[in-house]
Amino acid sequence: MRRTTLRLIVVVVAVVALVPITFVLFGLSVNRALEVKEAGDEPDDSFGLGCVAARPDSVTELNQWLTRARTVGSDVGADVGASVELSDGRSMWVFGDTIRAAGAAGPTMVRNSALIVDDECVRTISTPDGGAVIPDAADGTGYWPVTIDHIAVEGGDRVAVGLFRVVGHGDGTWDFTTPGTALAEFWVPTGGTPELEQVVDVASTASDQTPAWGVAVVVRNRWIHVYGTSRPSDDSTGWALHVARLKLPDITDPTRWQYWDGRRWGDDPAASAAIIPADGGVSRVLTVFRRDRHWYAVSKRNDFLGTDLVIWKGDAPQGPFVATPAALQIPSTPDNLQYMALAHPHLLPEPGTVVVSWSRNGGGLDEIRAEPSRYRPVFARVPLP
Predict the structure, then answer these.
(1) Of the candidates 123, 122, 90, 127, which has an alpha carbon nearest to the alpha carbon of residue 111?
(2) What SS3 class is residue 180?
(3) Which residues sit opposite 260 in a β-bridge?
(4) What integer pLDDT is reported at residue 205 of this predicted model?
(5) Which fold has domain 3-36+47-383?
(6) Dihedrals φ, ψ of 72, to 5°?
């Protein structure tokens, strides 16, 4: 198996034991046990914004640009592509391992990158040294984004990015371990350039059998709904989806969280019931969102080994969620892994539909440099059930 493919399988299967990103979003203190970087290790937040393309006005234009462009600024290709709409109407996008163009300043590959999209342009967020937007720690630990959210405040937005911590080992490009997770907080002034405020490392990952809370977060009225995924056994074909809820004042007090046990909300996390079962279930990372009266969970069924991009529909945050017929077929092969399906409800909105994306990887560095579209997300518009 290609090392590239092995790396992607680990990313999708690994535990995403994220502390809910709302800890950072609402400007509250995180648990004191978390390791905050020392002042001397804080990354350089002197970012620049450069227009690299006109903003696509349709999904077709977006895919055409991603297919034809040899580079996106100084970048050749990347995966993930989680997004959030900011209060000023722009959107911020975060990507995982990003391959840099030949001759670009800095390393040939960085652990993450980001874009800002406004009414006119797709703009790359660049660093003075050509490195990652969320730079590696002093010990070499890198950061892979998996989710992004925000809250609007006076003068701009507080944006938080959920991250895998990743440590390389050996001489191979894809030799690595993922010892835990982290959170990055950005301040994005209205109409301005993002500023990296802090990176907070989280303790070790949890077991697969325990819900990893924070893979999706939905704020609705007075409640924050936090979703988690678990795999009850090695024989499970996918991941089970769970939900907890809390009120803003209780963010840092897990004893006040409420967990759906299948019948009611209770205070026992061990009683959390799967609202989507693991067999035929979701991927490790997914999107949950609400539109009109309905709640939707968008994911690739049965994770990277599956074929179907599915939308589960419910009338409440705890469901019951019902899988609807596959919206798309996105099978994987050893030379074309398709994974991490995400929804983008803010992107090019049209009634009764949602734009979705999924990541692809089609080979090693040389193959991707020769055909960059093999390592870029693909977008599609699908009907909402």
Answers:
(1) 127
(2) strand
(3) 265
(4) 55
(5) Tachylectin-2; Chain A (2.115.10)
(6) -115, 95
